[in-house]
Amino acid sequence: MTLEQEVASIMAFALRSAGNPSPYYYDVPEQFEFPAMYFPQPEIVTRGETFRTYASDYAWYINVMCKTTEEAHEIGLGVLTKLKQARNLVPIIDGGGSETGTKLRLKDPMLKKIDTGVVQLTIEWTSRRPYDAEDVLKTQRFFVEHDIKK
Asked: Which CATH entry fits the domain spanning 3-130: 3.30.2000, 3.40.1260, 2.60.40, 1.10.3470?
């Protein structure tokens, strides 16, 4: 499981649980659509785990933005509640958006007001990876064209 898969899976879960608000991933434009969810890059802290693995602890501060704080809180609380109902387990999705059958365990989520009309949903998790893992490009699908001549 890659970081990209983990992040995409959490995004998909959060957006679906929030009723599919407008997602923003980089800078939020001045004229954005309400309701919205802003997904900045997660913060990462690494540490040694075992002789063969290291751990990366992720903290992701996702903003839910609405015209009022109450609306933002309602949406953020809906996502938090869905996470708790799922026992903090997010289904991992593949490149096509289908569930793979594996799940990512999150730490307990948090929700707090950070501005008028904005609440912050904090998502944290730990990923473990072997030190000697090779970076490889995985092929999702093969399409082969050939011309058979008799």
From this structure: 3.30.2000
The number of C-alpha atoms within 13 Å of 57 and in the hemisphere containing its C-beta is 7
Q: Do the bridges between strand 36-38 and strand 22-24 make them parallel or antiparallel, or are there none, so unpaired? A: parallel
E strands present in 66-117: 89-93, 99-105, 110-115
CA-based nearest residue to 35, from 55, 14, 52, 56: 14
pLDDT digits (tens, 9 = 90+) for 32-68: 889 999 999 999 999 988 889 899 999 999 999 999 9
The sign of the dihedral angle between the CA atoms of 102, 93, 32, 67 is negative
**Residue type, position 105, single letter:** R
If residue 71 lies in a helix (H) or strand (E), which one and from where to where? helix 69-85
- pLDDT band for position 135 (cuts 50, 70, 90): low
Domain spans in the chain, listed from the N-terminal domain onward? 3-130
